[in-house]
Structures are given as C-alpha cells and as structure tokens.
Specification:
The complex is a heterotrimer. Chain A is an alpha/beta fold. Chain A contains 23 helices and nine strands. In chain A, α22 links the parallel β8 and β9. Chain A starts with 13 loop residues before the first helix and ends in a 9-residue tail after the last helix. Chain B has a seven-stranded antiparallel sheet, with helices on both faces. In chain B, α8 packs antiparallel against α12, α9 crosses α11 and α12 packs antiparallel against α13. Chain B is globular. By secondary structure, chain C is an alpha+beta fold. Helices cover about 30% and strands about 25% of the residues of chain C. Chain C has a five-stranded antiparallel sheet with strand order 3-4-8-6-7. In chain C, strands 15-16-14-17-18 form a five-stranded antiparallel sheet. Classes of the chains: A alpha/beta, B alpha+beta, C alpha+beta. Chains B and C meet through α6, α7, α8, α10 and α15 of B and β7, α6, β9, α7 and α8 of C.
Chain lengths: ~425, ~475, ~350
C-alpha cells in the first residue's frame, strides 16, 4: 500500500513499520483469520483496518488517541500473519507502533492504574503470589469493586500451587546429547509450576543437560506488547546477561515467552544491544520445537485410551510458526488419540493481559474456543502456553465441563513416568 | 445534506454504536482492494438485519443521499468504494445461512455470508457451492452477486449468475421485490440473470437463493512447467482441442510463480517461465480416462516437467499458490493494478506477446495469472506510487491492455466488473444506443442515482485516484 | 404477417407498427401474438455470422434454425448441451431464447440461459442494441442477454445471438429403470440427484419409468454404467437406440396431436405434490432434469390445469397450444419485471405486461 510515513521520524523501527505497510495490498485475506473481526464485525477491528489506521497515525493524518481503541483491541495473536499472502510482518508494525503510541495517548486513570498494577505484579513471582493471595481474600466482595476488576478475580485458580524450588542444573539421563538453558517464566511459576518441572524432567530424560540460569526474569512480553518499550528492554537486558552463556538452545515452555524472546532483535533495533539480542533470539526454541528437532525416545503408551484435543497457542502457531512439532511429539504416545478442533487458528482470548484489559471480547473468544474444543468430545485439552491454559480452564469451568487441561510437556512427562493422566469424573 | 446531518438522520434508525462517523472509524472503509482509489463517506452503518437495510435505503432515497453497499471490501474494481459524503452500508453482519436444503440442493443466505462458508455448511451433505473466486475465504455472496464473480472453476459450470436461483432485493427507491424461484428452470424473463452483475446499481440483495451441486467424486490435478508463456498458451489450445472439458485451466507466469512460491511455498517448479494447472473433475472412471488423454496432450506440448497431485493435500497446495497469487504479488512491488480483460482463447498467445511488449514500452513489470480456459487474463501491473508519474503510467498501461482486449474481440472485464476503475472503457466496448438502454434500466430502478453513483457508466470527469497526495 | 429480409427492414417495421410480435419457426404453438399485433416472421434473418471451433463460441442470426447450427457444430465435434426442443420441427435460435426452453440435456451443464453469451436486438424505438459479447466470460454492462431468455418477445426483437458450446461427448448410453409405483421411482430419482454421478439427463415418466443418460469418453462408459447399475441394485437395462429415444423426448413426440403442453418449473420435492394432483386426470406427464421441470400434456384447454397449478403455487408456460394465455398458474404482481418492461418498452410496442 502506498504511504507517506516520514520514516526517519520513528527511529530504527521506522523502516520496519513502513515495510509492513508497504507489503499490505488491502486484499482482506486477514479478515477471517482475525478473532476480533470475527467477534466484532467491523473493519476498524481487523488487521487490514488496523494497518490502515496505524499508517494514518504514523503519517500524521490521525492522532494516535483516535486509533487507540481499535489498536488496543488487537490481540497481537498474529493469526493475520499466517493468513497473509503478501508477507506483511504485522508484528513488526504493531509492537513498535504501540511503543510510539504509548507516549502519545492519554488513557483514562483507571486503565493506567490497572495496567501499572499488571506490569508491576505479573512479571515478579513473589509479588504475584502475594497479590493472588490478597485477591482471593477480596474475591467474595468482588461485586463492590469496579467492573473492570471482576474478570481478573474470575480467572484466579482455586488453589495456589506450592512454590517450587527449581534446581539450577539438572544432569541428563544417559549420555549427554545437548545442553540448554531454560526460561523459568514468571506467571507460570506461580500459577502452574508443574509445567517447568515437567519440561526439565522430559529434557533430562532425553539426554539434555538443563541449566536454569540465576538472575533471569520475566521475558518482558507483557511490557513489550503493551507498548512499554523501556520497561521491556530493562527486563530483556536482565535476560541478555543471564542467558549469555553459550548453550545449544534457550528453551521456553510458554509460547508467549518464546515469541517475545524471538522478538528481542526488534526490541533492541538500532540500539547497542542489538547484536547480542539477535544472537539470543536465534537460540530460542519452544520446548516442543527443540524436542522434535532433537528426536526423543517414544514414551510408553498410556494405560487408558485417551482422546486429547490439541489447542494451538497463537504465539506458538502464528508468532513462531510452530505447528507440527507438538503434534508429532504427541503422536509418539501410544493409546493417545490427538484430534484437531474446528477454528484451530483462532486465539482463545488470553493473549497476554488481553483477558484482563478487554474482558468482553476475551470472554467471547474464550467461550467460542471452548465450544470448539468440546465439540471434539475430548478427555483432555493439551496446549503449549500457560496463558491459554488459564483462560481455557476458566471457560471450561464456566461451561460446566471442567475437562483437564495439560501442557504438552506435562502429558509427555506423565507418559514417561507411567503416571495416570487426569480425567474428568 | 452535510455529513453531520447524515449521521443524525441515520441515528434515528440505528443505535449510536452502529453508525460510524468518527475519522478513525471511517478511514478503514475508504477503499476496497483497489487501493489506488479512496473516498471518505459521511457515515458507515452496520445493519444486523434486513429491516435495517431497507430502512437505510429508504432514508437515503428520501433525502437523496448516495449509498454504497459493502461486503468484505475485496472488490478489485472499486465496487465498494464509497461515494464522498455518502453512506456505506456494511453488510458483513448479515451473515446467516437462513436455510440449507440438501435434498433440493439449495441454500438461502443473507448477503454478508462469506462464499466459502456456504461450501463449508454444505460439505456434510456432499454438496458445495461452485463459484470459487480466489478471495472466497473473505468475499461475500452479496458482493459475488453484484459482480457476477467467477473463479478458476467456472469453466465447466459457470459463474455466480449460473448459481443464483432467486433473490429478494431492496431497490434504490426503497421497494422490496422478489424474483426467481427455487427451480433450475423458469418461466418469464430471467430477472435474476439481469440483477446478477448489475454492480449494485439496482439496489441491495437481502436474501439470495443459491444452487448447490454435489461434490465431484474425483479430481485429477496436473501441474506442468514450460520454458515459455507461449508454449503454455499453446498447450491450452491443444487441451481444449482434444475435446476435454476440464474443471479448471490456469496459467501463471514467472513473476507470479515467484510471488506465490514466496507466499505459500507450494513447491512449484522453480525456474519455470510458465506453469499450467489443469484440473479434471467428475466420476472416477471418467477422470481416469480423461487423465490419460490430458497427460498425452500435455507431454506432447513441450512441458519440461509434469506433475500429478497424489492426494487432496497436494491438490490443495497447488491451488493455494494460484489463489494467493494476486495478493502475493505485494511482495514484489509496493503496489499493483490488477486487470481483468478477456480475449478469445485462440488469441491468448497474441495477447500475451503484446502485453509483454507494452510492459517493456512502459517500463513497468507485469505479472500474469489467468483463467486460460476461458481467455480471462489477469495482468498485474506492478508499480511504485512513490515514484512521480508511475501510477499514471500504470493506469495508461492498464488502459492499453483493455483496448487490446477490445481490439481482439474480447471484453474489458471477465469477472471483476467495471466498477470505478474501468467505467471510461465501457464506451469503447458498447455503442451510444447500447449505453442508453442500460441507462434507462438504471433510471427506472434508481431515478435519483443514489445506488453506487459514479460507477459502471462513463462519467463526464475522470474519477480521482488516491495516488500520493 | 410481414417478413423482413434483413435487420434494417426489421427496424423499419418496428418503427412503423404500434405493436409487433416476432415469430421464428412457429413451433411453440402455445405462444400467441397479442391482440392487434403485426406478426414479424424472422426466417429471413438467418445464417451463422461467426464460428471459430477453437473458441467454442458461435454467433448467428436469430432466425437460424437450431437444426442447421447443431449440424455445423457436430461437424466440428461440438454441441449445445441444453438440446433446444422442437429443433426437428423447425425451432430457431431466437425462438429458443425467447421462449426460454431447454431439453432434457440441461440437467448436466445448464439450460439455455447458461449458454447464451450475448444478443443484439431491435428495441422499442427501432434501434439495434447490443449486450454481452462473444467471449465466454464477460462482466461488462448489464446482462440483457440473460434477461431476454424467456421474455417471449415482449422486451424487443432479438436479431442475433452468441452462444458458447461444449465438446461433444464421444459416447452415450441410457438406462431404463422400471418401477411399479411412482413413489419408488421418485425415491430412486432423489438418490441419483444427491449422488456424484455425472448424468446427462434424468427423466421420470409416470407411473414409474426412470430414464438415466450418461455420456463421456468411450473407454470409461462401460465401467460407469456398471457402477450406476450397482447403485440401482442391479436394476436398469441399457436402451437400444439412445439417440432416437432422446430425440423423441426433446421433440415432445409423446404429446398427442392437438393437446396443450405446459412447462412447469419444479423442484424434486414439488414433483410429488403435482403428480398426486395430476395422476387421476387424463394428462400425460414427464418430469425432466432431475425433477426441475414438469412437462404436462393436457387434452384441450388447460384452464383446469392452471387452477391446479395455482393451488400448488406453481407457474406454467403453455408451449404447445390448447388456447388461452401463455402464462398459467400463479400470476402475482411482478414489480421488478414491470420496471424492466417500462424501461425497455414504455409504449408497449411488443405487447404483454408483467
């Protein structure tokens, strides 16, 4: 598409944003792939429309605050990238644009305060744990609180799992085939620590030496995708230092984190840390990606025939392009039937803090996703991202069908250990 | 009436959030897939049922406000380009399939239903909706009706017009009419045939009865690579002369192969100057017999590589590349114009050679993708609008290609319609009396000329392209 | 009756007389000129104007007999799949278009409306107007060529038509499947309608005879017939003279002399209701195109038939004459058609109303 974006005004990411706009030919193939277009049915809430709006803002024809409601509603799921025949790198427009717009748009006080709360709490496990406990206390009184806060309270887990003590180094079983550093994650450590434990065990079982570098922290995804560039870079720098050691791969088991770390090159574009950031990005692999590439020993079959429906996290399928790996891995497990849900390409509505900031759309998407998953009559839901797991579990509960939700590595781990798979009774 | 009054008037029909009036809300509706043109409407409305559509049209008629109906905005001829200061009636929320009767093989749908969704709904019954424009995952039936959309598979079974049985429409002066019927046969003039392809000038379809057909038992899809475009064109003539009636015959040239390959990695033979796709469809024994003949003809035609899709997945991959070709060309150039001329099939070679010559003369690259089976060309003229004068040169080149089509006895549009883009050429294809009769028909349906004003018919003044301001 | 020698003469006639009515081969005896109209006989406007077999299209003057065109096409291995009816009786291209009639072969690829590409016609003011084109794909301008299909000469006098054609099949074969009761035959028709068999024609003659025609390449025809018979549970015998059989059908030779023949657009489900009503009468019926059209032969004036059609909310066209109006059955107001008429023939030069 033609544009008049004064590229030099936008720093090192200017050319990347402009290139994305240029590649767009306004064909509209992205519309059916966009969850917000499917739910909201208006052009402003479609990738094609958002690209146009962002272009208008960057050209100075619209003020960022006018486009804000629509750009904010973008999930960042990158489903449009998968669907786009022209190769528009939508993520390379959205993320830098949001950073630019964050400075230009004045949001309502409650929104700013909530966002601050999330950014100061979620990336820090100790603070998050405390916050969750506090939130559980006030949950019975949630009706007294602003409507904006209630969905947050609604997503809280019933029981907070025990705080884990992740080991620093785990030696492989058998001869060492590879050595990796693992991102422990932030929200995941508090809400679903069993994932990390399973990741480490499955890697070790397949001859991989695992290190969990100290000094690491949140990957910065939340900040990055909210346009808080400086905060995201601060968090990322910590990881650049923590993951500096040479390993065969930097492994993540949360799709959102993997996708954010693979974007570190863009985050530091034109800055002194660009080279090490790109180097780190190049090493990042999702755990399913890594295991599939490495080749794993097939686990023993499950004791009971089980049907699992696989949900593609948007940050794994669209943002990282990882589709086959988890399916192949699950395919190795005997007595496990893996089925595909309808509308597999649609986001579940979690998308970072989206379900906290845009609860209605997120809830609609969550309900829609759960309908699609339940249509396959599964015993289990398997996926590769903690955010999706929280969202899907909450909506399965709301639908009265609390089918167990597992991470891909959790299922592999159970199979390896000959443990029973949780079932709905 | 100024924009504020339009908005106020429409707010009487719709709840406020379904009348879009703020600049950020209107901007995305300013153009469709023909990005060279932009126009700002006074308002966009989002009806959710036919009553609202009718009320809107009646309101527009009462106050003489022009309107444009819009589906998914994928028109390649400016069909959903707004009239400046007018109303855009976005029909995408009227997206219900009202009735699907597998025994009678019909589907009754609202105009905002996406083309591919019809086939998806019919699939469990072994049926599908045959017209398959490349934009079918996005485009709507309403848009297909307005432009008589075609697609790669219309060679054997026809275009949209051959698959619409009945319509309910609101005419531009507000009268709601029904015509056609559920039968494939009819008594009386073919009014449905008149309405389909009328480019919105006769009003808005509210309910469309579509013909569904059984899915063919088998497909055989052949991909052949040639060292020259002429050879591929010649092969088409031979395929057709052999008495075969394929379901689809398509050609892509080097540039479009490059783009499609980059976009979807269909695994096309790299290095081919032209690719020919021929698909047979029908009963298993019949396509097997036809395939023998087809392979014989194709091998004798000088293809240097011939592939047969081994299963449905491979077949889908071949088509994915072809169907993404237009948009994929966006990777090769900041912008492009896609043309839609038709030439008699036997003149394909001549037409392609001439287009190549014109391309050199104008210094602009032209990618070619087309429905070789029916002579429907889609030259994609690549240009960079930032370079001064390049858009204009591209448009001139496009005009030359259209004139070429007329000269060779073809048409200025096979399936994209005239819209805004080609209206000046309508007068080169039809004489003054022909246009007069068409104008009278338009007049009797739309005395105030509020439906898609400024489209299809040549105007006194050239339309304003967006260009670079 | 007047007989113009060429298009210019025709134009003058149209300008001269207040009401004219075109006539081709006069084969559709059920269609009568309006009161006081001058009948313009078009046999002088005859001949193929353009035919390039490589293009699979032809253009011919409206008065050209269908038979002549089909013979020419056959010489080049091509044909009109919709089998214009009454060709042997002398039907012309213009008449076929204006009456909107198709034969049993319309089942496979479509009817006359699906094959017409363009027309030239003389309008109410005597001008020659062109619409559509000569190429198989054309989206420019309004599709008046389709509009003229079934227009019974009430919108203008068609002088030239362009059609697309298909390659003629190598071989044909027909199965005759007998059933004792109509309901059984109809069930089988329905099953075939839903199947993926590519049938050229699918006709049902009450009480229980089903005619199933296939065509295509010679080498696969045998296998296809086998599969078809297997689908029909072994029933169905191959008919001896396939060509003669279908010639009979498209010429309506089964209609007794002097009887009316009415075309009734139907759908498979509506066939049952109509048959139920008509079975006890003296009429003869043939349900063609998989049940999409019913041909009803009625002794004498079809007024009673019209009442039946009206009750069943069906329309009919009297193709072969028994007297009375051409349109039978339901006749409601048709605002869209009325506007079209107003635009093309405001002074009523061509009679009729919508």
């Amino acid at each position: 598409m033609l544009h008049e974006i004064p590229v030099s005004r936008y720093g090192p990411t200017g050319p990347r944003m402009a290139r994305a706009v240029e590649a767009c030919v306004h064909c509209g193939f992205c519309l059916p792939a966009c969850p917000t277009y499917r739910v909201l049915g208006e052009e402003m809430d479609s990738p094609r429309g958002r690209i146009f709006l962002m272009k208008e803002v960057l050209e100075g024809r619209l003020h960022a605050s006018e486009a804000a409601p629509f750009v904010d509603r973008c999930l960042g799921c990158l489903g449009c990238v998968t669907a786009c025949p022209s190769g528009v790198a939508y993520g390379e427009l959205l993320t830098p644009y949001r950073e630019y717009a964050a400075g230009a748009v004045r949001r309502p006080l409650l929104d700013r305060w909530l966002r601050r709360l999330f950014l100061e709490t979620l990336p820090y496990p100790r603070r998050l744990r405390a916050a969750v406990r506090l939130a559980r206390l006030i949950q019975p009184f949630s009706q007294r609180f602003p409507a904006r806060l209630r969905p947050v309270l609604g997503l809280l887990p019933r029981r907070l799992p025990a705080a884990p003590r992740p080991a620093r180094v785990v030696l492989p079983q058998g001869p060492r085939r590879a050595r990796v550093a693992v991102l422990a994650g932030c929200v995941q450590q508090v809400l679903w620590p069993s994932i990390h434990a399973a990741t480490v065990r499955v890697l070790a079982r397949n001859g991989v030496e695992v290190t969990v570098p100290p000094g690491q922290g949140c990957c910065g995804a939340l900040a990055m995708h909210s346009g808080e560039g400086a905060r995201a870079r601060a968090l990322a720098r910590r990881n650049l230092r923590a993951f500096a050691e040479d390993v065969d791969a930097v492994v993540t088991d949360a799709a959102g984190c993997g996708s954010a770390m693979k974007e570190y090159g863009l985050l530091f574009a034109g800055r002194p840390e660009e080279a090490p950031a790109r180097a780190l990005s190049a090493k990042v692999r999702d755990v399913s990606e890594f295991l599939h590439q490495l080749g794993v020993q097939p686990p023993p079959p499950l004791a009971v025939a089980t049907r699992a429906v696989y949900h593609d996290p948007c940050h794994l399928l669209h943002a990282q392009g990882v589709r086959e790996a988890p399916r192949r891995l699950l395919g190795l497990v005997g007595n496990l039937e893996v089925v595909e849900p309808p509308e597999a390409e649609l986001c579940c509505g979690s998308a970072g803090t989206y379900n906290l900031e845009h609860p209605e759309v997120a809830a609609e998407l969550g309900r829609r996703k759960v309908r699609a998953l339940l249509a396959t009559e599964p015993d289990l839901v398997v996926t590769g991202n903690v955010g999706c797991m929280v969202q899907i579990a909450a909506h399965l509960w709301a639908a009265g069908r609390p089918v167990p939700v597992l991470h891909t590595v959790e299922l592999l781990d159970l199979a390896y250990r000959g443990q029973p798979v949780p079932r709905l009774t | 009436m100024d924009a504020a009054q339009v908005v106020a008037g429409l707010r009487a029909i719709y709840p406020a959030h379904r009348v879009l009036a703020r600049p950020a809300e209107l901007a995305p509706y300013e153009s469709d897939a023909l990005t060279a043109f932009r126009a700002r409407p006074a308002a966009v409305v989002l009806p959710e049922n036919r009553e609202e559509v009718v009320a809107t049209v009646r309101w527009c008629h009462r106050y003489g406000v022009p309107f444009v109906a819009r589906g998914s905005g994928t028109s390649l001829s400016g069909g959903s380009l707004p009239v400046p200061g007018g109303v855009v009636i976005a029909l995408n929320r009227l997206n219900r399939i009202l009735r699907l009767d597998p025994e009678e093989r019909i589907a009754v749908v609202e105009p905002g239903v996406v083309n591919l969704e019809v086939s998806k709904a019919a699939a469990p019954f072994g049926l599908y909706y045959a017209p398959d424009p490349s934009s079918q995952p996005v485009c709507t039936i309403g848009g297909n009706v307005a432009f008589n959309s075609g697609g790669a598979h219309c060679l054997k079974y026809g275009m949209t017009s051959n698959h619409v049985l009945a319509l309910e429409a609101v005419l531009p002066d507000g009268e709601v009419v029904r015509f056609g019927g559920e039968s494939l046969e009819e008594v009386g003039p073919d009014l449905v045939g008149l309405f389909v392809g009328s480019e919105g000038l006769f009003g808005i379809a509210l309910e469309v009865t579509l013909r569904l057909v059984p899915k063919p038992e088998a497909y055989r899809t052949v991909l052949a690579a040639y060292r020259s475009l002429e050879a591929a064109g010649e092969a088409v003539a031979q395929v057709v002369a052999s008495g075969l009636l394929p379901g689809a015959v398509e050609i892509m040239d080097r540039l479009s192969i490059e783009a499609a390959e980059a976009a979807v990695h269909a695994g096309y033979p790299s290095d081919a100057a032209a690719l020919l796709i021929v698909e047979l469809e029908g009963e298993e024994p019949e396509v097997e017999a036809e395939l023998e003949e087809l392979l014989r003809v194709v091998r004798a035609s000088g293809a240097y590589e011939v592939r047969l899709a081994r299963d449905e997945a491979e077949r889908q991959k071949i088509w994915k590349g072809r169907k993404s070709a237009f948009s994929a060309v966006g990777r090769l150039s900041p912008d492009y114009l896609v043309q839609d001329g038709v030439v008699p099939r036997t003149r394909l070679g001549t037409a392609l050679a001439e287009i190549e010559r014109l391309s050199r003369e104008y210094g602009l690259r032209v990618a070619n993708v087309f429905h070789a089976g029916d002579g429907n060309l889609h030259p994609l003229i690549l240009y960079d609008g930032r370079k001064p004068g390049e858009l204009q040169r591209a448009e001139e080149l496009a005009g030359e290609i259209l004139r070429l089509c007329i000269r060779l006895g073809g048409s200025i549009t096979g399936e994209h319609g005239v819209g805004v883009e080609k209206r000046q050429y309508l007068a080169e294809m039809f004489g003054p009396r022909d246009l007069e009769v068409m104008r009278r028909l338009r007049q009797v349906m739309d005395p105030l000329e509020i439906a898609n004003r400024g489209k299809m018919f040549p105007a006194a003044r050239e339309p304003e392209p967006a260009g670079v301001r | 009756m007047v007989r113009p020698a060429d298009v210019t003469a025709l134009q003058e006639l149209v300008r001269e007389y207040p009401c004219v009515w075109p006539r081709g081969g006069g084969t559709k005896t059920g269609l009568r000129p309006p009161e006081g109209a001058v009948v313009v006989e078009l046999s002088g406007l005859r001949g193929v104007v353009e035919y390039d077999p490589g293009e699979f299209t032809f253009t011919a003057l409206a008065g050209t007999p269908v038979r002549e065109v089909e013979k020419l096409l056959a010489e080049h291995g091509q044909y009109l799949p919709f089998e214009p009816p009454l060709a042997a009786a002398g039907a012309t291209l213009g008449g076929t278009l204006a009456s909107g009639l198709s034969g049993p072969g319309r089942y496979r690829y479509g009817g006359v409306r699906d094959f017409v590409l363009g027309v030239r016609f003389v309008d109410a003011e005597g001008h020659v107007v062109r619409s559509g084109g000569k190429v198989v794909k054309n989206a420019a301008g309004f599709d008046l060529a389709k509009l003229f299909v079934g227009s019974l000469g009430q919108l203008g006098v068609v002088v030239e038509v362009s059609f697309k054609v298909f390659p003629a099949p190598q071989a044909h074969a027909t199965l005759r499947v007998e059933h004792r009761r109509f309901e059984e035959a109809w069930e089988v028709l329905r099953a075939l309608y839903a199947s993926s068999f590519d049938l050229e024609a699918l006709d049902l003659v009450p009480p229980g005879t089903l005619w199933v025609r296939v065509a295509g390449r010679g080498q696969s025809l045998g296998a296809r017939l086998e599969r078809l018979r297997a689908f029909l549970q072994g029933r169905g015998e191959v008919v001896e003279d396939d060509a003669a059989l279908w010639e009979q059908a498209r010429e309506f030779r089964w209609v007794p002399a002097g009887w009316a023949l009415v075309k009734v657009p139907l759908t498979p489900r509506r066939v049952v209701a109509l048959e139920q009503e008509l079975a006890p009468t003296d009429s003869l019926r043939r349900y063609s195109a998989g049940g999409n059209v019913g041909w009803v032969a009625w002794p004498g004036s079809p007024a009673a038939l019209s009442e039946v059609l009206q009750r069943l909310e069906l329309r009919g066209l009297q193709v072969l004459g028994g007297g009375g109006p051409a349109y039978l059955g339901v006749r409601g107001p048709e605002p869209f058609a009325a506007r079209v008429k107003r635009a093309l023939d405001p002074v009523g030069r061509f009679g009729g109303s919508f």
